[in-house]
Design brief:
alpha/beta, single chain, globular, 35% helix, 177 residues
């Protein structure tokens, strides 16, 4: 199960510090339901705040450590958090030997996670609130769930919140079992 962070797990508030990122009230319970159903929970998030100098890699790691601790305490442990620190306009990242392959809508974070965590992408879901999330999920071969009211996202399913997405996924899995 791949999850976007900002706008999916909590409001997109342009996180700058550990104290500014908050979860939606329903997030922990929804993710705990997925965990109980034996889904591996992986966050894949674009974080250009690093490239913009608004947050260091260490500060972002602290935000993600707190996110992981909070969710684990509520029965929804994350298997991993992957992030792309690059600016949207960055076309070439010399350290990567060329173009950034990790920034969604490219599937790099998902492919990397699949290799590291032995995840079958074709059996996976991606939940996100942006076209870039859906694009990454589709490019990786995942079933995609768009959170929002935008028309024609190309997602497999669309609903307003993570809570409804989890309801649909669990019902979808039960039908296919």
């Amino acid at each position: 199960m791949f999850l976007d962070r900002d706008g999916t797990l909590g409001p997109d508030a342009g996180t700058r510090s550990i104290t500014r990122f908050e979860l939606y009230p329903w997030t922990a319970r929804a993710l705990a339901r997925l965990h109980a159903a034996r889904f591996l929970l992986v966050v894949a998030t674009n974080q250009p705040v690093v490239a913009r100098g608004m947050l260091t890699e260490a500060q972002l790691a602290a935000v993600h450590a707190r996110l992981q601790a909070d969710l684990a305490a509520d029965g929804a442990p994350l298997a991993a958090v992957y992030h792309c620190p690059h600016h949207p306009a960055q076309a070439v990242v010399p350290a990567l030997g060329g173009a950034c392959a990790c920034r969604k809508p490219k599937p790099g974070m998902l492919v990397h996670a699949a290799r590291e965590l032995e995840i079958d992408l074709a059996s996976s879901y991606l939940i996100g609130d942006g076209d870039w999330d859906i694009g990454a999920g589709r490019a990786a071969g995942c079933t995609t769930v768009y959170l929002g009211d935008q028309l024609d996202t190309g997602a497999t399913f669309q609903c307003p919140t993570l809570r409804e997405a989890v309801d649909w996924i669990l019902a979808h899995e039960a039908r296919d079992a």
